[in-house]
Amino acid sequence: MRNELTFLLGGLGALTLQGCKAPKPQSDQVAHPNVIYVFPDQYRNQAMEFWGQEGFRQRVNFRNDPVHTPNLNQFARQSVVLTSAMSNCPLSSPHRGILLTGMYPNKSGVPLNCNASRPISSLREDAECVGDVFSKAGYDCAYFGKLHVDFPTPNDPQRPGQYVEDRVPAWDAYTPKERRHGFNYWYSYGTFDVHKDPHYWDTEGRRHDPKQWSPLHEADKVVSYLKNEGNVRDPQKPFFIMVGMNPPHSPYRSLDDCMEEDFNLYKDQPLDSLLVRPNADPTMKKAESARYYFASVTGVDRAFGRILSALKELGLEENTIVVFSSDHGETMCSQRTDDPKNSPYSESMNVPFLVRYPEKIQPRVDDLMLSSPDIMPTLLGLAGLGDSIPAEVQGRDYAPLFFDENADVVRPSGALYIQNMDGEKDAEGLVRTYFPSARGFKSARYTLALYIDRKEHKLVKSLLFDDANDPYQMHNLPLSEHADVVKDLCAEMGKTLKEIDDPWYRDRILSDMIPYEE
User: What is the dihedral of CA 148, 154, 158, 164, to 10 degrees?
Assistant: First the structure.
């Protein structure tokens, strides 16, 4: 599933700020580019201001949120911007497992959100992850922020034999060195939703409590790493950085969750001027959260801007690939659901995906329907490491399409939708299996999702939307009245489920609708 095309790319830029350790001259061998992947949690594609601006609004059929994102606005005009990147299993841990391994949840080891009651859900230790590949290719690899792919165990470095939190079940986790998959620099945690009182464990397992809004703190730590303060990286090596910011993930209820200067931009605006999408209900109890969510979006934009400014000041901008994305979206009162994610709605599945590589890729907007498993191999392809994509990876390398929109690469016909829930529990109440509750397929025009019951695996609910004529998915179409559309979507879904060896394929679920053998 990988393209064999390899790109030999330019050398590393020199560090220029005073007080930074200057890199030694590069060897004669052509160096690979630096790569920075920034992915705030629960950041929906619609929450970017540039979608309402000239050159962008003509490429989408939705109205963007009225947010202030000046750094992303500028970044978008320097990048390839995807309109239709999809989070196939729009939930934090499953997406991160996919992101790191290039494999769907049934293969990554992470089918459910990770906590201490779900030993079934934990990143496979034997998987060759994106950090492993970059590390083997000679990169210094650094991870900052939220990870949330480990089954929490009683391994607190400061309290041996105990979990890192006293909540039952524990959600937060410490990741020991042997489970960091190639990341030699570490400043991370499992999951912890107190945005102004975050904590992190560093490379040596020391805990840090900075008392600072987490995206800004993480941006400062990334800048310090870029400056090589404390000689934390080898300046002769390229670097691969992942930054997992938590906001705009919930909570988004008060000034404890965002920066006041950002909240002030939205605090006096009527809710119906913030929730501008016709499928959003401003009378819902959650509606007041929009101000805090948008404030967090603006704060993340500012933190992202700090990283971009540092790259430029340090002379690293030209030879650094920068990607901005997210693990899933946020429904924010659309469809009258309180669940911000884990659904096939566009606000949940459609995520940002912007890639900047100065002079190597030309800025444009593209409708490539990139799926979560495609991100890992595409990152490797962009960095000239397409021949190092592990054979087990299920995603595809679409790097050629970023370099040339007319590249001879078959574009995907759509994206799979996956929803899993807890399965059987043992005598101790621990989840030992998962239930594949729903599967679906999103094409360029339609969204289909099929839900089954636990006992007999029969169809109990369906969603079918004509996204071209109903972009806000307000009219659920009866399957029986659109038989030809359903047949085509089920054929594509069955083909993909078979290809990835999904439980629906193995158990031939809804085989009267889905032609698995074609």
Answer: 40
* DSSP bridge pairs for 280: 334
How far, in Å, CA of 10 to CA of 33, rounded?
6
Q: Which residue has the higher pLDDT, 348 or 5?
A: 348
Q: Are 317 and 307 in contact (CB under 8 A)?
A: no
Would you state the structure tokens that stand for residue 433, as one six-digit string? Answer: 């299996």
Q: Which of 346, 312, 309, 313 is nearest to 330 (CA)?
A: 346
pLDDT value at residue 30? 46
Using DSSP, state whether 157 is helix, strand or coil.
Answer: coil
In this prediction, residues 82-95 reach a mean pLDDT of: 98
pTM higher than 0.90, yes or no? yes
Q: What is the mean pLDDT of the chain?
A: 94
For tokens 């030809």, the residue is: 484
**C-alpha 149 chain-centroid distance:** 13
- Distance CA(357)–CA(369), nearest Å, equals 20
Task: Look at strands 207-208 and 200-202 and give their pairing.
Answer: antiparallel
pLDDT exceeds 60 at position 187: yes
Give the C-alpha distances (Å, rounded to integers) separating 96 from 36, 109, 328, 398.
16, 11, 10, 19
Local structure of 451: helix, strand or coil: strand
Q: Each residue of 226-255: pLDDT tens digit?
A: 999 999 999 999 999 999 999 999 999 999
Q: How confident is the model at residue 517 (pLDDT cuts 50, 70, 90)?
A: confident
- On the question of pLDDT at 393 being above 80, the answer is yes
Q: Token pair of 495, please?
A: 């083909």
* 3-state per-residue secondary structure call for 262-292: HHCCCCCCCHHHHCCCCCECCCCHHHHHHHH
DSSP H/E element including 241: strand 239-244
**Nearest CA-CA partner of 500 in 423, 393, 410, 419:** 393
332 with 297: CB under 8 angstroms?
no
Q: How is residue 389 written in tokens?
A: 């994509």
pLDDT digits (tens, 9 = 90+) for 306-316: 999 999 999 99
**What's residue 518's pLDDT?**
62
* Measured distance CA(491)–CA(417) in Å, rounded: 14
Angle at 415 between CA 412 and CA 416, to 5 degrees: 135
350 DSSP 8-state letter: B
Mark out the alpha helices in 330-424 (DSSP H runs).
346-349, 372-382, 399-403
Do residues 404 and 415 make contact, with C-beta atoms less than 8 angstroms apart?
no
Two tokens, residue 187:
């400043």
Residue 19 buriedness (CB in 10 A; 0-12 / 13-18 / 19+): exposed
